[in-house]
Each structure stands twice: as structure tokens, then as C-alpha cells.
Amino acid sequence: GAKALHRAIDTDAYEVRQHAYKALEKIGSRTSLKYFIKGTKSSDVDIKIASFKGLGKTKSSLGRDIIIRQGLNSRDPNVVAAALDGLGNFSRKDDLETLRKFLKSDVQEHQSGAVRGLGNSKIPESLDILSTAIGENPGLEPEVIFAISKKKTLNATLLLMKMMQTNKNENYQAIIQREINLRKAYGKYAVVKTNSATIRKLPRASSEKVLVLA
Question: Exposure pattern of 125-160 as b/e (b: 16+ CB <10 Å)?
């Protein structure tokens, strides 16, 4: 598939190239690296956006460098958002601060890109940042729900179940319920008997202690 798309970019007309880049981004193969690099210099914004997202999926050091040097410094907020989306795929701790910084930006596109980047990251701390993002910016709630849904860990499932109980929006509840059903995280209960139980701030064993119940 990628080879056919490469040929389309090399030989076909403008509109075909645009759609070929979008399809290449979905595949995210490292064999497309040179096409993504070329695409970041395109005058077509859609090609540029697909290229920065695709660079992240290649997980190449060169791609990350281009994302940081060029994508994050773009004057187009949609390109910056795509670069943040791609950056999250590298799952590096030193990139979390970058994503956190853009999450607090006043630019909506930057916030959305940071949320998508955190959703792509496999670092456990990315889930902690997403879990606090809604409290700081309720308008990001639907995007945060989709970002958390991309994570298939037990911690993500527990957080979705917690959000299901606290969320008042029926549409968002339906989205969360569908994801919980797909994970088969329903109808399973257990009674745990213990001399003490620790209440933690976040649904992770290493999270900050809030209270110990005897």
C-alpha cells in the first residue's frame, strides 16, 4: 500500500497527492520517511499536517528533530497541533513537559494537539496529565475522553470507569460506556478484605497517598 501511495505522490496530480499523504499518515511506515520530510516543506497545509503526524509514527530520531525544530515553531496553529500529535508517538519523558506546556496554551489548536499527543504517548504519566486536564479546561472533555480511550491499559480503563460515574453529559457517558463495553470492563465485581486500604489521588499504585483507611 505504501509503495503505491509513493508512486501516486511522485507521478499524480495535486489532489491525488494530497489524499495520498493523508493515507500514508494512517500507515505511518518508516519507508515513507523521505516523503514526510518533503511534505513538511509543502505549501499545502493538509500535506504539511499529514507529514508531521506521519513523522511521529515513524518514530525516527530525524523525524522527532524536524517536529521539534520546525513543526512546533510553525506560525500555523494547525501545523503546531499536528506536530504535537506526532511528538506524542515517541513516548519520551522529556517530551511530556512540551505537551504539558502547549496544553496550557491560550490557542485552542495547541491544546487539542497536546491532548492527542498525550493520547499517543505510552508513558504512564501522560494519563495523569490527561486526568487533570478536564478540571483545568472542561472544554477539552470530549477530546480527553477519546485520548484516554486510545490507551488500553488497566489504569486507563479504571479512569474511564471513574469518569463514567462523575460525568453528567449523556452524550459523553454514551461514548465512555461504549469504550468500557469494548473492553469488557463490566459486570465483574470482587470483595477485597484487608486490614487497611490506601486512597490515592490517581488510579495508579505509585500515585500520591491521600488517606489510609483502617
Answer: ebbbbbbebbeebeebbebbbebbbebeeebbbebb
The confidence score (pLDDT) of residue 214 equals 80
Res. 14: pLDDT tops 80: no
Would you say 100 and 114 are in contact if contact means Cβ atoms under 8 Å apart? yes
Kindly tell me the sign of the dihedral angle through the C-alpha atoms of 174, 179, 183, 185: negative
In the prediction, which pLDDT does 74 show?
Answer: 96
pLDDT per residue over 74-108, tens digit each? 999 999 999 999 999 999 999 999 999 999 999 99
Beta-carbon contacts of residue 196 (< 8 Å; ≥ 6 apart): 212, 213, 214
Cα-flanking dihedrals φ and ψ of residue 130, to 5°?
Answer: -65, -35
pLDDT tens readout for residues 124-176: 999 999 999 988 888 899 999 999 999 999 899 989 988 888 888 899 999 99
Sign, CA dihedral 79-60-91-56, equals positive
Q: Among 166, 179, 105, which residue's Cα sits nearest to residue 136?
A: 105
Radius of gyration of the chain (CA): 20
Cα three-residue angle 72-35-110, rounded to 5 degrees = 20
For residues 132 and 119, what is the distance between their CA atoms, to the nearest angstrom? 14
